[in-house]
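Progress against Task 2.4 (sequence-to-structure conversion) is shown through the following example record, which the project officer requested during the mid-term review.
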Amino acid sequence: MIPAAFEYARAGSVQEAGDLLQKYGEDAKVLAGGHSLIPLMRLRFAQPTALVDINGVKELDYITVENGRLRVGALSRHVTIHSSDMVRQNLPLLAEVASEVGDNQVRNMGTMGGVIAHADSAGDYPTLAVMLDAEVVTNKRRFAASDFFMDLFTTPLDDDEVVCEVVFPVATGPHKYVKFRRRLFDWAIVAAGAQQVDGGWRIGLTNAGPTPTRCRSVEQALAQGATPEQASEAASDGLNPSADLRASPEYKKHLARVLTKRAIQQAAG
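Structure tokens generated for the chain above:
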């Protein structure tokens, strides 16, 4: 299908992007990689009156480490994150996740900021951000990742607000991210991540509810000496996954338990 008519503007700086969003109003959208937005526009599920293209904003394309924190600019492409020595040395789990996002075309065009701002429950980066207590930084303020993802496709971003970077803690311990999907390049039906931090575990789930899930009950069980098999039984506690064409809520809860166990076991070696 053909998208509805819209205006187009290309920003050269974060300030200009904010000004253009303010000019066009609440129905304007930011265009980064476009792999989520454009298909929605083609189906007319999304009909923005204007697109503000930020691909020319070079100040948002960086990966650095400062004071034990890995800063990933919003325009960092998946392929760049995967191949970055900075990421592999300071948060190898993020590099692992980036390598499994979509196909080659998506990995070469899709961005960290686009995935975070889109807030799809099937997105992988939001799960890492929540389970690792990352921060989402915009042109106006900072959010704890746990406060940023409010509901499916819902964030607290203002109409003229742009995601600028995501700040992760450095974590180099045992880790694993396990995705369950029907085909290689599909979104995860459910996915589970495990990362050891300061001797303890951080556990997160993707697509097991309207927002990313941090499994604190699993983390607590592991801290108390439970085996991965025992601890993973708590992975489905409190989950409220929605049914879709690929899986029922009960099957997604089953996957949450199974994939959590696998992620912990594979991370621990």
